[in-house]
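Throughout our pipeline, every protein is held as a single compact record rather than as scattered files. The remainder of this section carries one protein's record, kept here as part of the documentation.

===
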Amino acid sequence: MTSPSTPPSTPPGTSVWNDPSRPVGERVDALLQELTLEEKAGQLGSYWLRPDPEEATGGAAPMESAFANDRSTFEAAIAHGLGHITRAFGSAPISAADGVEHLRTLQRQVVGTSRLGIPAIAHEECLTGFTTLGATCYPAAIAWGAAFDPELVRTMARRIGDDMKGVGVHLGLSPVLDVVRDYRWGRVEETVGEDPYLVGSLTTEYVRGLQEAGVIATLKHFAGYSTSRAGRNHAPVSIGPRELRDVVLVPFEMAVRIGRVGAVMNSYADVDGVPPAADPELLTTLLRDEWGFEGTVVSDYWAVSFLESMHHVATDPRDAGVQSLAAGMDVELPETGCFADLAAAVREGALEESLLDRAVRRVLTQKVELGLLDEGFDPGTAGGAVDLDSEGNRRLARRMAEESIVLLKNDGVLPLAGDTARTVAVIGPSAAQPRSFLGCYSFTNHVLSRFGESGTGIEITSIVDALTEEFAGRDTTFRHARGVDFTDPDTSGIAEAVAAAEEADLAVVTVGDLAGLFGTGTSGEGCDVVDLSLPGRQAELVEAVLATGTPVVLVLVTGRPYSLGAFDDRCAAVVQAFMPGEEGGHAVAGVLSGRVNPSGRLPVGIPRHVGGQPGTYLTPTLGGYAEGISNLDPRPLYPFGHGIGYSTFSYDALELSAGRIGADGTVDAAVTVTNTSERAGQEVVQLYLSDPVAQVVRPVKMLVGFAKIALEPGQSARVVFHLHADRTAFTGRAMRRIVEPGEFVLRAGPSSEDLPLEDRFVVTGPVRDVEDVERVLTTPVDVEIADRALAAGAS
């Protein structure tokens, strides 16, 4: 009798690698032994059937046009097999049904050409949802940060993954784990915020959600991309190794060790002179040897070629390919260029075959785990009809938008009473342009706009139309005047806007961004700015409306924070909506009407000045304001974590379970929060750690825990943070991560600058080295509401 632990024998006529009853490693090894050098190299390449330049303007990736000449045909690219099919859905406006058939056709060709019938992995972008025509567009990642809700992000990612899996996609190029260090950087909208723990907590849940659906997630951009000089895209990164490890790398380590992510993508920007695409210390020593990553490393588009053409660390494409593969790169995206010569490099002794095998084994492992090599798998039937913008998706998109909107200021004008007769002027470029709700990696702004399409590709209600719907049947009249556009210097429309405001009881002034790529937008990849003033002539519009004396509710629909110091004190209310997605109009209208009680909190600070900065809250003493040292005051107008709503909350009794713990101990910090208003609402309880004296300069404070809780009027909650001593760790003078004994301060409250509760504890014993151990990376939270306990998970 066959033992239960012994896999059954492979059926006659079935290769070992096609037998799903066999262990994955055995299947991969058997297939690897059958491949020629050319077939091995083929598994590390990719192909992108890009739109004809006569059909689409600009590019969807940096310097795309530079790689338009001398491209191989698809037939030539798949002659020895193919690793990835690039964006079969997300490159041109095609329906979901046509996309399914398009991908099937490509896969049939790949399998039919491959001597051993190996399919390709199909990858797509999915940062704001599946980037294809007609798919749900969720809020941008910066809005996830504002929602402060990891479980909500996980639910969203699971839905995105279900849709992608349903049409035959295997891998998604998301999420972005870059920590914001400079607000001028165009890709701030793609990030989750300026705090590494917030970024790591939310993106780890995104990874879990996407991969629960059977789609591999990809971490971007490893590492240091967002810390480039002057916030310029692709500019050099000059940070020190301590900042890199203690700030930039934290979210990546969380997503690798906790989320068990399946793929990682390199950063374009060199770090202290070394491009990550050719850095073995980053791609192998740290990522794999220290963190235990077992997936594939895929190149950002043309990053391997950039080693020669942009970084000038390689003599030719072959040298670039050899360097990158040896460093730990596994797949070249979006097309095979430098990896095309890997087989020849092995034959000529320029590359060890073991390094080639190492990468191929990783790619084949993913293909086996995805079921692509199972006996009976038919690429001609993979995927099917899927409603990519279902009612369930839209409900979730609206909830995500509603929970991400931040009410910064309110003198009592909000919410707008439904029974009061009034005329409201709705002014500004964001009011009637729903594309402003969408990030640069939405299909609308990333692809559709390049085809001369002025529409959105999905149903989106503008702010002015959503307000009209919201107040239907009430005695409220809305009058719209655009005033100015996002970047057009024409200010002739300001007079109409002023007239509308003068005749109104209230003016809702909507300003912000219109995302694009490489200078075609005010926010997005390659859309960096010299300062933090509102784009175009929008500040002039705000000033003109304020001058009328009509109360102003300023609504910002943006991808980055902008300076509001010039007019904040004259606004009756200020609402920040970070690119809230396809349901953004309804979400904004709901906040203004009061149907939605805003619960978003700032994932980035709102600056007071347009210059003299930028800086984030995560800074040491001398990074902040120091009278007598500098005339520049970098303190924000509204700090990280700030946000108010239509409910009020009190904070009482920060209680620590112990005053002293060992260097591997845990202290529980309990906070009591009460809803002191007459309306149910949500509060984001935030816990910050300070290290008053350390062997290296430390941030004044850092977020170490948070929990978003919902309370009925008069209801209280006891929020308990379980803080392990590892959460105090930092990189010491010897460049080893340590837990250093000494006194630490914990503060709790509703924002990084509003922390009414404080207590201290001491870590005792010798210095603990945590460099070579899997240290505790999260702060689990328990929430006890009334007489029932709810587990809030690791936040």
Remarks:
- The first strand starts at residue 46 and ends at 48.
